[in-house]
Amino acid sequence: MKAALAVHTVSGDVEANFRAIEQMTGEAADADADLVLFPEAAVTGLNNTGDPVHDLPLGQAIPGAVTERLGAQARARGIWLAIGLLERDGDRLYDSAILVDPTGKIRLKYRRIQPQWHGRNADPNVYCQGSDLGKVDTPLGSFAFLLCGDLFDDGIVDRVRELSPDWLLFPFARCFSDGSHDQERWDTEELPEYLARVKRVGTTTLMANYLAHEDLGGGRSFGGAFVVSGDGTLIDSLPLGRSGLLSVEL
Fold it and tell me: Which of 6, 79, 99, 159 has the fewest C-beta atoms under 10 angstroms from its C-beta?
């Protein structure tokens, strides 16, 4: 499998974010990638505030107009597309991810189980978590998802290990509190923790983090993409602080 991990700059302009997603999907396909992976909340950023009046409009129906547009892009370019989305289901909001096949069909949907994508005082009738973990078999092998903080929950990680997918897709949205793109801090303090968590999963993991534009409210994610083997070894990476594609033969 040839995978492309896409790090795009996410702003408050949803249409601009879509154009970046479509452009990078095309670039991945032109590079003969079988699959392109985008980060968590890739269309809007993880820009929720705890106010449903602001946050519910960020959510997208799955399936819905947004997933139809993504599916059309996957179909036009003949590529598998994995992406994180804020999902709206009625008056409920989820942190979700989908895997779309080259015909445009959603083959796997996942709702984040770990709750720290929203504030502790967020209304639990609006800000919701999933409970199910699944995997899907494809011609590229079997896939499962985790999202961001899921990776640091032992119970969730052990459930994925029991599923034993061939590939783990990991969209995330990590930032430092000072808004920096501190590569040294990431390399020395943060990355070893992520490698250890992937080792506990035991599955090659594809990780993509978006790069937040300064106009995006909330945490300013610092970008970066990483491919980690099931024994916790870093296979390849894209540095923090810049947009781009990380292409890897696996």
Answer: 159
CB 240 within 8 A of CB 208: no
Domain of 135: which CATH number? Answer: 3.60.110.10
Residue 146's pLDDT is 98
Element (H, E) at 89: strand 80-89
User: What is the number of structural domains in the chain?
Assistant: 1
239 class by beta-carbon count within 10 Å (0-12 exposed, 13-18 middle, 19+ buried): middle
Q: Which two tokens stand for residue 2?
A: 């040839």
Angstrom distances, CA of residue 150 to CA of 160, 178, 182, 183, 228: 10, 23, 23, 23, 16
Please name the residue that has the structure tokens 């079988």.
Answer: 34
Q: What is the pLDDT of residues 96-146, one digit of tens each?
A: 999 999 999 999 999 999 999 998 889 999 999 999 999 999 999 999 999
- Per-residue pLDDT tens digits for 216-237: 655 578 999 999 999 999 999 9
Give residue 209's domain range: 2-249
Task: Please state whether the predicted TM-score (pTM) of the whole model is above 0.85.
Answer: yes
The 3-state DSSP class for residue 82 equals strand
